[in-house]
Amino acid sequence: MKGIFVILDGIGDLPHKLLKDQTPLEAAETPNLDFFATRGKLGYMYPVRQGFVPESDEAIVSIFGNDLISSSRGQLEARGADLKLTRGDLAFRANFATIDSYEKGNILDRRVGRTLTTSEAKELAKSINFIKMPVDFIFKPTIQHRAALVFKGGFSDNISGNDSAYIKGKLDKKDKIEPVKPFDDDENSVYTSALVNDFLEKIYEVLKNHPVNLQRIKRGLMPANFILIRGSGIEPPKLQKYNNWISLGYMPLEIGFSRSCGMRVYSFNYPKLKSLDSYENLHAGLRKACKYAIKMVKKNSKAYDYAYIHIKETDTPGHDNKPFEKKEMIEYIDKTLFRFLRSFLPSRGIKLVVTGDHSTPCSLKNHSAGPVPLLFYDQSFLKEKHFNEKEARRGELKGILGKDLFKIVGFKK
């Protein structure tokens, strides 16, 4: 193996008052990441371009050298969820969510308070899939509040989603559901948007008094009474191939992306959410991900040239303004995955790149246009460094764009 590429999802952050005006990465004890930093180069990266707030799919698509129009979030999510797609099938990324009512359209929580259990999601999905529509469709829950939605047939994807927060360029980003709108006057675009709106209204009627939700309300929990959709796509992804790579993908997006790139995907069944403690579930997933990544690298170090490891859990505390949780996750990854890599890479001459797909500052509770820290371990001469945002800003790699990363570090397809 020549190189390992690790993305810590949403790792970039801003100084937080609860951490004495440090970022979670600056506050974390990371002796193993620092080992690589002292023997490598630091810098910072804009995953897509400066001033752009990327979603995860846009970031990884760009970092791996593709144009944003090469794929859609919906297609990648659906392929990662093992849904069979043919050209013209309309795919979306979906979230179970909580709204006050369909008429008022106020979004109370985009993720049902992160308390929707796996069994509840399956029960709700079963009822959704019984909805009568003039076309065939599939709604499949994946992990926690996430799901994939596919309409079978020949549709237009030149339409919007229904969540105001994910409509690019929208200035009034209130927490409201929006009607799905066509972006042109094409007959198919108008028909597709009308069909999807009809489906969404029917979902609310099915879910608002669903036994699962009535029980949740009795327990003082938010009902999962709606779904939010985004990332419409009908075309198969047209991404550059990375056939001599392996990938640790355990979220549908990363699985779908890696498959579309021709990587050999290694995955595992994510722990089911059984209780109200979503962070207990996230930590269980993180433990499994780090353990599985170590196993994957050991097994394939001689068979493949590169490995892509994507750790998702570090993004969630940013969305929830939980800097201590983010710090704790970073420290766990350091003492497990990066501790192993510290013992494994130097003697084999394997290079390492560590970065993020986007910044998710805890204080903003959302993605930002800020750059992500970048570490390139190439066994260069010793220097005193720590892997964090402040040091990265002073690093010799300076600021780069995601599309230039692999050229700079010498990673090949």
Describe what this molecule looks like in 3D.
By secondary structure, this protein is α/β, with parallel strands linked by helices. The protein has two domains: 3-71 and 239-409, Alkaline Phosphatase, subunit A, CATH 3.40.720.10; 78-233, no CATH class. Helices cover 33% and strands 18% of the residues. It contains 13 helices and 13 strands. It has helices at 24-27, 31-38, 56-63, 73-80, 118-128, 187-207, 211-218, 252-260, 278-300, 316-320, 323-344, 389-393, 405-409; strands at residues 3-8, 40-46, 90-99, 107-109, 137-141, 146-151, 226-233, 245-248, 264-266, 306-311, 351-355, 372-377, 398-401. The chain has an eight-stranded mixed beta sheet, sandwiched between helices. Strands 3, 4, 5, 6 and 7 form a five-stranded antiparallel beta sheet that branches. β3 and β4 form a beta hairpin. α4 (73-80) packs across α8 (252-260) and α9 (278-300) runs parallel beside α11. The mean pLDDT is 96.
> If strands are numbered along the chain, what order do they take across the biggest sheet?
9-8-10-1-11-12-2-13
Largest sheet: 8 strands, mixed
Count every helix, treating DSSP H or I runs of 4 or more residues as helices: 13
CATH architecture of the largest domain: 3-Layer(aba) Sandwich
Cα gyration radius (Å): 21 Å
Task: Calculate the mean pLDDT score and round it.
Answer: 96
Stretches where pLDDT is under 50 for at least 5 consecutive residues are none
Strand content: 15-25%
Share in helix: 25-40%
